[in-house]
Known about the structure:
Pfam families: ZU5
CATH topology of the largest domain: Chondroitinase Ac, Chain A, domain 3
Protein name: Putative cell adhesion molecule binding protein
Mean pLDDT: 87
Strand content: 35-45%
Radius of gyration: 19 Å
CATH architecture of the largest domain: Sandwich
InterPro entries: Multifunctional_ANK_Repeat, ZU5_dom
Domain ZU5: 1-141
Keywords: ANK repeat, Repeat
CATH class of the largest domain: Mainly Beta
Number of domains: 2
Amino acid sequence: RHSGVRVIIPPRKAQMPMRITCRYLRKEKLPHPPPLLEGEACASRILEVGPAGAKFLGPVILEVPHFASLRGKEREITILRSDNGETWKEHTLEASEEAVQEVLNESFEGEELSALEDLQTNRITRILTTDFPQYFAVVSRTRQEVHAVGPEGGMLSSTVVPQVQAIFPEGALTKKIRVGLQAQPIQ
Length: 187
């Protein structure tokens, strides 16, 4: 059976030859599945990658198919990772178009590269990482705007529902914090 997962390791990014393994698991099979908040759901099975803890000399890409409906820009895909199978955290290395393009340009040329770019669809998410945790989880959630707000105050607006705003008056905060705002349109 073909999983659709693809691992792209550019030349000279592995310290030594290694056997890469990827396995899909049902979240029910994990002793500690990823903690999902209200409105969040797994968009594919949990991906177990190995060797767990492997470090690379630069970013590598995992392409993982998912079945999430992103409903335009209302929802987004986020990646959770677990290094030990017990605790989960958000994977912070963002797979921006520029970062992905840089890795692909290092790895492929001409026709190979254009064939890869054809693959970019809404049904595949790219995970950019410099190390392998034990597990990756592809999660669908309501789009979240995250901004840093400090003692000077500020305003957050939702790109999904522009009428939704959070206003922090000057002096309301004592230090700079990251604030997340989620809004879901109701028809």
